[in-house]
Design goal:
By secondary structure, the chain is mostly beta strands. 14% of the residues lie in helices and 39% in strands. InterPro entries: DUF4270 (IPR025366).
């Protein structure tokens, strides 16, 4: 018996990719068989699926963070703010004598790409990872909220986790007045010019890619940084992070459509720069003033996203009303601090045992998630979904062995396992197909555990890390890449009234008997 199952598994691995390659020869949208050149049969199996609201998700384990306001037609409005430590670019800095601080600039580079030069050779840029065309209220605050590296509750043995619902905790620790306020902030694709001293002491003009650049108060940073020259608080970064504990870059709605910006805070150019002059003795000219600068970096410290906003009452009520034992008509998926779906396979024990006894070569097994456009309306739909092992907080074997995996192009990676959204002639999404062939093969033919599956929206299919969640029964972690996009969708569930669009497990097999 074991030898027979081993032969089945080996045969499956040998033909699975050939089957995928010729998939279009015998399937159409929805997976219906058109022709059957290889005696492949189809078995449709009922699944159980329901939605879960994600109320609190770990957000400090990524390098990319959102700032701004997102207005979603289904899931409502949410505002994303950033809490971050700052690090000294050099420990125990020396600014010189008779220092005069001229300006202080906070800079967060946008994701952008260079396009054709404009008139007179001016470089033009196109911004990437900007969602929405409105504006939002932007404020910057100092806070006394301490960000630990290690979690005291674990005996300082594990990394401290910070969560999306901790904004109130941070705001209770705001120190003083805001350092910056803009009631109608919008990102600009304009480049900016900076000046750097060359080897002979002359200023070189540098054209830089677009960045969020905010002028912060000189008096505050003179007192906070410049006047502390030589003191213990600037001696090293440990002292400094306890002294200047964190910065809150806060986004709030201003009743426009809003926009949401993704930043890479691991970029070494994400910084607060202090520009100053100081007095030195020159051999020829005597006492002269020279320019200098010093940077406070966003790299090298802890930072996390916090979110404000609630789902509309009708959506929350529908999610809460879904019966985990009898499935649902709709599955509600929203990234970030949003919602997910749980998929349970082989709930009928008698059917499960029967399937395990069959002598089947499984050519393909898939879940096709049809999009409920009636519930969705006019939205920008997510391109990819990710299905994972919910019980063990890990990727599925089909994710791991996908031959199309490519690190250089996440948008075109792992397309065998999780295809891009399929669109109709009107441009609207029709369905997502996720293949779990080897997972099903192992469950039916190798006695692998029949685990629960989790379904989320992903912003990067190659990111296989996981974020912890709180205050959600039966779920401990979700793929962290769900934090990298603000998209949402509504899918038909296993109890949809339209049977053709009802969620089912489809197994294409060859009976070896």
């Amino acid at each position: 018996m074991k030898l027979n199952k081993l032969i089945q598994i080996t045969a499956t691995l040998a033909v699975v990719f050939a089957f995928i390659g010729c998939d279009e020869e015998f399937t159409e949208i929805g997976g219906e068989i058109i022709s059957n050149p290889t005696d492949v049969d189809l078995r449709e199996i009922k699944v159980n699926a329901y939605s879960k609201k994600i109320n609190s998700i770990q957000t400090n384990n990524l390098t990319n963070f959102f700032l701004g306001v997102n207005e979603h037609p289904v899931y409502g409005e949410s505002a994303a703010s950033i809490v971050s430590q700052l690090s000294l670019s050099a420990a125990n800095p020396t600014f010189g004598d008779k220092v005069e601080l001229d300006s202080v600039v906070l800079k967060l580079p946008y994701f952008s790409s260079q396009i054709e030069s404009g008139s007179e050779g001016q470089i033009q840029y196109k911004l990437d990872s900007i969602f929405g065309e409105g504006s939002f209220k932007l404020s910057v605050y100092e806070t006394s909220y301490l960000l630990n590296d290690l979690d005291p509750s674990t005996g300082f043995e594990q990394q401290q986790k910070y969560y999306s619902d901790q904004q109130d905790d941070v705001e209770k620790n705001i120190v003083g007045e805001p350092l910056f306020v803009d009631e109608e902030f919008t990102p600009s694709s304009d480049s900016y010019v900076s000046y750097e001293l060359n080897e002979v002491g002359d200023n070189d003009t540098i054209t830089n890619a677009p960045a969020l650049r905010l002028k912060l108060p000189v008096a505050f940073f003179k007192n906070k940084i410049i006047d502390k020259q030589g003191s213990d608080v600037l001696l090293n970064n440990n002292n400094f992070k306890n002294y200047f504990r964190s910065l809150l870059i806060k986004a709030e709605t201003n009743n426009t459509a809003g926009n949401l910006i993704l930043f890479n805070l691991a970029n070494n150019d994400a910084e607060i720069s202090l520009y100053y002059t100081h007095e030195i003795e020159d051999e020829d000219d005597g006492l002269v003033r020279k320019r200098g600068s010093f940077d406070l970096k966003f790299t090298g410290g802890n930072r996390f996203n916090v979110y404000k906003g609630e789902f509309p009452d009708n959506i929350l009520q529908e999610i809460e009303a879904q019966d985990e034992n009898s499935g649902s008509s709709n599955l509600y998926l929203k990234s970030q601090e949003g919602s997910m779906a749980v998929i349970e396979l082989f709930e009928d024990e008698a059917e499960f045992e029967e399937l395990k006894q069959n002598n089947w070569l499984i050519n393909e097994a898939n879940l096709t998630f049809y999009i409920n456009q009636d519930a969705l309306g006019e939205v920008v739909e997510p391109e990819r979904l990710m299905l994972y092992d919910l019980d063990n907080n890990s990727v599925l074997i089909d994710y791991a062995i996908d031959p199309t995996a490519t690190e250089s192009s996440p948008a075109n990676s792992r397309l065998t396992y999780s295809g891009k959204i399929e669109r109709g002639e009107d441009g609207n999404g029709q369905f997502y197909k996720i293949r779990i062939t080897e997972h099903i093969n192992r469950v039916l033919n190798s006695d692998a555990d029949n685990v629960k599956l989790g379904l989320v929206i992903t912003g990067n299919i190659n990111n296989a890390s996981f974020s912890a969640v709180r205050r959600i029964d039966g779920v401990e972690r979700v793929p962290a890449a769900s934090l990298l996009t603000p998209r949402g969708t509504v899918l038909y569930g296993d109890a949809a009234s339209d049977e053709d669009k009802r969620l089912k497990l489809r197994i294409y097999y060859t009976d070896l008997n």
